[in-house]
Amino acid sequence: MSKTLAVARRNEALLAYGLLFPSLLFLAAFTYWPILRSLWFSLHDVMLGDSQIYWLGFENYKRLIGDPLFWKALKNTALYMAITIPASIIMALLLAVALDSKLRGMAIYRSAFFYPVMIPSVAAGMVWVYLYAPGFGPVNNGMEALGLPRLDWLYNARTALFAIMIMSIWKYAGYFMLILLAALKLVPSDLYEAARLEGISSWTRLIHITVPLISPTLYFVLIIAVLHSYQIFDYVYVMTQGGPADSTNVLTYYIYQTGFQYQDVGYASTIANSLLFFMLGLIGLVAVTIGRRVHYLGER
Q1: Does one domain contain both 112 and 231?
Q2: Domain range spanning residue 284?
């Protein structure tokens, strides 16, 4: 009997590995191998299109430490993440709570707020370039109608990055809203009814009932938001190309510039590795601080 059970378990394990093998092969070929290759390139002088590579050791990393443009791109990336992540999640949560009702027409509002997610990033960037246009853009026209001065949104180093942030929040808040809206459907309605009978305000119900009960989903949304934010490239490429004066140059765009415009693959790999380590550290920090505060139903 034990021998039969062992054979059955072995066959089950072989079946599991067989089913996982295509995905593992794809993951290894397009994720882990490029990472290892990038680490190897960062230790060499590698030029795009040149088959000859030369060992440099840690010279690229020493160059990185003394590169002011790298630190500026890192600062822009960190600022972009620090503003867009909490802003988009808070907006998504407020929208989800507001749309979590049984009133007529709510499906139309949900679709309207989710619609920006379906627009291709390049197309959305071009739309916002038009909206921000100094001479005829609707944003400046609206500001002028309110008595506010017109701004060169994408052509001023002080406002260009914030203009991209506004566009990014608009683009992703609807996606996060949809996820949180699904989580709100699982919150027992009798908890809200009991809170209303006790005279607890809507804001207190949100903070002390809604947020703790959907904290696993909020944590998931936070991780997704972090992953989205550090991958910003297309908006910068379409709207500003890193300008003006590198005020919107983020790490992903700097990697593109170094690797494909300047054709320095070795140094571009060094910047990419620094971004990878930065993100791993950030996600680890989020897991240690916020992840431990997440309350899962059924846990004691």
Answers
A1: yes
A2: 59-293
